[in-house]
Amino acid sequence: MYEEAARLIKNSKRTVAFTGAGISVESGIPPFRGKNGLWNKYDPATFEISYFLGNTEKSWEVMREIFYELFGKVKPNSAHTALAELEGQNLMHAVITQNVDNLHTDAGSKNVYEFHGSLKKLVCLKCSAKTDVSDVDLNILPPRCTRSDLKERPGDGERHKAVLCNGVLKPDVVFFGESIPKHAYTKSFEEADKADLFILIGTTGEVAPANMIPRMAKRSGANIIEINTTESSYTDSITDIFLKGKATEVMENLMSAI
Ligand code: APR
């Protein structure tokens, strides 16, 4: 199966990787579902945008605990770096990821579509300015926007007073109930239309609209290689080659077969 998968990768004109939480498990980031999945411990409802807007400080406390304690401290693993190496060899055209951990970019992948956004930036709910999370003190929740605009005070045109925005900052990730970033959405479905090979790594395929991308690719004639420790909703429906195992081990075997 590795020989066949390697042949497909070498002969493909346009290969795209579609990744989920499973590719980052060996970097130390728990998945959402399955054994020790985050949703066994935390209620996904806290990731509804309506909950965040109504319970901002509480929602931030949960996000800091499950995402930001790890964010920036975990490193890409050999599965992330393998995808970046394949891109460097022109054997991988793009990575579409559902993950918000920035590990594909950290591993050196250039063409990455972050379908659910990224924890790296915080966005102001008032002025929409984006701030790198490394520039924000998360000991004070909710973090607030420090952008200050010089504004004329009514009446005395010559005097200026900096007005602090002070809007609430939100992680620049897609909460349940929010729309997908336009660029990532458009490019991802374009790839589903054009690619002749999709490599699915570490995803249950349970969350729409992301989970439609591999199905669109299949419908447009792409071959599907799937890498997962267990079967997913894709395995018996669209997967052509199922390489069962941990993302790092399977990608290392695949790289030696290429
Ligand atoms: N190697 C490969 N696959 C793995 C590994 C591993 N070491 N460990 C776990 N997996 C697989 C699991 O078998 C499962 O199929 O990774 C998948 C993780 O599934 P989910 O936790 O559901 O992750 P994902 O599919 O990315 O979830 C999609 O759900 O909650 C939302 O927005 C969140 O982006 C996320 C979306």
Please sum up the structure shown.
By secondary structure, the protein is α/β, with parallel strands linked by helices.
What does this structure look like?
There is one protein chain. The protein has 258 residues and is an alpha/beta fold. It has a domain at 1-28 and 74-116 and 179-258: 3-Layer(aba) Sandwich (Rossmann fold). Helix content is 31%, strand content 21%. It has a six-stranded parallel beta sheet, sandwiched between helices. Helix 1 crosses helix 9 (247-257) and helix 5 runs parallel beside helix 9 (247-257). It starts with a helix and ends with a helix. The relative contact order is 0.19. Residues 20-22, 25-26, 31-34, 37, 98, 116, 202-204, 206-207, 228-230, 232, 246-247 line the site of adenosine-5-diphosphoribose.
Number of separate strands: 11
What integer value in Å does the Rg equal?
A: 21 Å
Ligand species: adenosine-5-diphosphoribose
- CA-to-CA gap between the ends? 12 Å
Give the CATH topology of the domain at 1-28 and 74-116 and 179-258.
Answer: Rossmann fold
- Name of the CATH architecture of the domain at 1-28 and 74-116 and 179-258: 3-Layer(aba) Sandwich
How confident overall, as mean pLDDT? 94
**Class of secondary structure makeup:** alpha/beta
Strand order in the largest sheet: 3-2-1-9-10-11
Q: Classify the helix fraction into a percent range.
A: 25-40%
What attributes characterize this protein structure?
three-stranded antiparallel β-sheet; alpha/beta; six-stranded parallel β-sheet; elongated; 9 helices; 21% strand; binds adenosine-5-diphosphoribose; Rossmann fold; 258 residues
